Amino acid sequence: MIDEVRSITALGKVANYIPALADGRKTDLAVSVCTIDGQYFQAGTVEKSFTLQSISKVLALAFVLDIKGEEEVFSKVGMEPSGDPYYSISKLEFTNPTKPFNPMINAGALAITSLLPGHSMKKKLENFIDYVSCLTGNRKIEYNEKVAKSEFTTSFLNRSLLYYMKQFGVIEGNVEDIIDLYTKQCAVEIDCLQLARIGAIFSLNGQDPEKRNQLITKRTAKICKAFMVTCGMYNASGEFAIKVGVPAKSGVSGGILAVVPNRFGIGIFGPALDQRGNSIGGWKLLEKMADQFDINIF
Ligand code: DON
User: Fold this and answer.
1) CATH no. for residue 151?
2) Cα–Cα distance, 227 to 222 (Å, whole number)
3) Do residue 94 and residue 241 come from a single domain?
4) CATH number for the domain harbouring residue 35
5) Pair 37, 78 in one domain
6) Is the N end or the C end of the chain the one with fewer CB atoms within 10 Å?
7) Average of pLDDT values for 114-122?
8) Which of 137, 163, 186 is where one domain is finished?
9) Is 106 annotated as a binding residue?
């Protein structure tokens, strides 16, 4: 299936607005599946690690929801898809009081990052990394310094979103500190297998596929999956729901986390992106899997 789809990667482009991501190899394409009883299947260039980028938004949201609760989280971010590109600032100006539409667009994700638990920025990052490590079955997790630095020095739009939100009281604290933390959060490295395992946890409503202990509360897992369906593929989420029909979250490094409830999690890596920032090969692969394995939840 991978070989059938690989040719479409020629039509995509590797992200270059974060300069360090431009090194990605366009033809790479990999998929892993982790079933709810902990069996793994994989195909393609699965040995490569990649940075989470926007996939980190759903993990940070799960972490912050379970630590701080819905009331605090939803006082800062809304629950509605925006229909705008992920970096858009426009709707911030038209909501009164100012509130990012949802935690999957950059504005909302930055607000969630500012809520990560910890007494210092260093500790907040450590806590987030420990959380991701716990979800991957205690693998050693690190962030890619080169990618983080590359984004930090070029994040003018994200800084604008933060300054706007600071003006209107959505975030507290120092903008540079939050950008530093956010770019490191986005630069956390993972591979397809680990991503598939995280998908399996969501497909089990928060339970570890091997030990069956609850890593994410059921309520939080359901909230995250609802956001993945409505906003996980950005302004392509509606089309993705129709063509594939599973909760999913993409990132500009080319990763996609997808969840087939009560069956399996899927981790994909394919750095060639379509115009809306989703892995072009990954999307096609998921369309094929939807046909072949009848995964559409609707
Ligand atoms: O904030 C950014 O622009 C990146 N760190 C993440 C964006 C992203 O992955 C959007 N994905 N489709």
Assistant:
1) 1.10.1500.10
2) 9
3) no
4) 3.40.710.10
5) no
6) C
7) 97
8) 186
9) yes
d(CA 163, CA 172): 10
SS3 128: helix
Segment 184-198 mean pLDDT: 98
Residues with a known catalytic role: 54, 57, 182, 234, 252
Q: What pLDDT score was predicted for residue 94?
A: 86
Q: What is the pLDDT of residues 138-184, one digit of tens each?
A: 999 999 999 999 999 999 999 999 999 999 999 999 999 999 999 99
- The best mutation among 51, 53, 181 to test binding of ligand 1, ranked by most ligand atoms within 8 Å of the C-beta, falls on 53
Q: What is the ipTM of this complex?
A: 0.95
Among 232, 235, 274, 250, which Cα is nearest to 26's?
A: 274
Structural domain boundaries, residue 224 = 2-52+190-292
Is residue 106 in contact with ligand 1, taking CB distance under 6 Å?
yes
Same domain, yes or no: 155 and 222: no
Strand order in the sheet with 255-260: 40-44, 30-35, 264-269, 255-260, 248-250
Main-chain dihedrals φ then ψ at residue 13, nearest 5 degrees: -135, 140
User: Is residue 112 located within the same domain as residue 34?
Assistant: no
Amino acid code (one letter) for 181: L
Q: How many domains does the chain have?
A: 2
